[in-house]
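Many introductory courses stop at the sequence. We go one step further.
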Amino acid sequence: MHTVSATETMYIDGRWRPAASGATREILDPADATVLAVVSEGGAEDTDAAVEAARRAFDTGDWPRTPTAERAALLRRVADLLQRDREEIALTESRDTGKTLEEGRTDVDDVTAAFRYFADLAVNTSGGRVVDAGSADVHSVVVHEPVGVCALITPWNYPLLQASWKIAPALAAGNTLVVKPSEITPLSTVHLLRLLAEAGLPAGTANLVTGPGDPVGARMSSHPGVDLVSFTGGLASGTKVAAAAAATVKKVALELGGKNPNVVFADACATDEGFDTAVDQALNAAFIHSGQVCSAGSRLILEESVHDRFVTELARRARLIRLGRGTEPGVECGPLVSQQQLDKTEAYVASALAEGAVLRCGGKRPEPSETRPSTGYFYEPTVLDRCTREMRVVREETFGPILTVETFRTEDEAVALANDTEYGLAGAVFSADTARARRVAARLRHGTVWINDYHPYLPQAEWGGFGKSGVGRELGPTGLDEYREAKHVYENLRPAPVRWFAG
């Protein structure tokens, strides 16, 4: 893997540079807490310099005025470079976040798909929309222009993927940008900025500041030179971003996580194959990337008649999940990303047990092994049974390998439980009855609903949530529109005096 040093992680106006203060931060490998890299620790001065570079590039540079087809061609070059560096980037992502190497490879492929999708979409929607003005003497058209300077703030769990969901449409639309990755997982974003430069993106068009939310993210959100801020992260931080952006009335897009229900009806388990699928998908929903997924199916809502059999098998399989360093062959689940996240997970489990939940498996750190150093941030996949909606672990986004189990008897009760959350990002329903599954899906107040599946997404389909899961959408045509302004151009082909005033 390319060794990252502190002079290589701030990219401003086409130049790699250290932080103005000279400050640095150690990036730790979550599998053993050793130092993986040293990066620059940016501050307000670096942020201002990056925004000024992006502002200058937008106001006087080439990129916003580059034909859409040429912008799309550059995005496709970036996609090719991502595939060229697939193994290196996947290894970086695995070591930085703790996820398995195979998950890292999947992320690179998904990022590649996002760049290609937005390249194609921008070209296919660049012609504008003719509006019928009701007169042959009028030519009326709605065109789209870039918003301007975009501040992009990304989370630690999917740093490369979430960066691509913002950077690709922002560039496709002709914007300039400043991106701030999470201060604990910045390495793959550094690599992506290198590929943008290699592909020929003009200096100042994309800028990178590595550093903490305060002051870097806070300054990006409030900066008068920024026209749009897009943030993915926690609810508390998201509300601060929105408040900071309000003073300058900039566009805001927020994806703030979820507390996602996975509703399983008894008829989904009526056959051995159906039962096996439903259990397997419940594990997949809850424990991919150690549950550190905004759309994780952390709330299993089971029809009561299948509860005992289902939970017994679920717990049995959860105990068999192979924990270890994500780069090791055969490992299915890596560590949590940090000591802070490990402590948070332990606190959630402790509170659940104190409130009456029944521990079916997990609930502790695993014994150390060759692939699980004692210094790593590992936690066993945990199933908490007999949970109720009043419990903190049921209501709050835990972002760890914790699955809670609730039960229902009727369809209405299942829907009520699934919608009883202040979030509304994603959810699923498993049923062999197609009419029931579609009926329940229509009633769920969540931005993405899977039927008899969990977790797949498509670049061409919008992603985002209801309620406190945020505002705006990423991916799909709406994901491009977030980074464009609509302009109506009305042309009178036969101008004449109006004679409104006698004059």
